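Side project, low priority. Logging it here so it doesn't get lost.
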Amino acid sequence: SSGINAEYGGTSVFAGVVVYSVLGFREATLGTPVKDVEGGPGLAFIAYTTAVAEMPLPQLWSAMFFFMMVLLAVDSEFGTIEACIGPLQDYRLFKKIRKEVLCLVVCVALCLLGLPMCTRAGLYIFTLWDSFSVSIPLLFIGIAQCIAVSWFYGLERFSADIEYMTGGPPNIYWKLCWKWFSPALITIILLASIVKQCLQPAGYSAYVGCLDYPNRPGNGTEGWVETVPFTWWAQILAAIMVMLPVLPMPILAVLSLLKGGSFLKL
């Protein structure tokens, strides 16, 4: 595990050096400060590409960059599809279906769900989905996993399971992280995210054009974009996306207790 962590850390450092060197080159050539560059799709398809276009042999660098993006997307999909198929195969309804057929069905369904993001309003839909469907629900799930494993199932039982599978007990550092450090840090991040959402209205970056361009679509800014609040219906949809992954956990726990069982046995 230490080797894998070192590999991930080295990859992150290398990626950071590559990204910020290109953004620094963009600032030197176009005058756009790095601090004004926003993340998300704008970083990959606007900021990064404009910098690549100013380099020597821009066709070569552009081809290599987008080929890397394709490989990155395909690599990410392996984990995503496996995460979807694994729980489905636990249900009796899907056990008789061959795994490759189930993979095809899931991929086609996800492709159809992603088609609205390819329309003219696609960036609006993508930003709404990316901002609310992952961040806060994932933090809730992370806290629930830490509490369920370390406190309900039992840290010593979990350590014994790891020792049985790997042949050696986990280090005391990991035990402290699982039981104390990780839940505390995730809780702080979750509370900070909730406070930020309450104090700062949710919005998205809309392209309004450059101040020097006469045919700009909006008022124009130096950074080409400005933050626009989401509409009321989008905020309702965002609240639903946040609650859907979180509500099943307390609901199923309460139902289990009402039926005379105990979710602690899980």
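Brief comment: The two ends are 27 Å apart (CA to CA).
Revisit when time allows.
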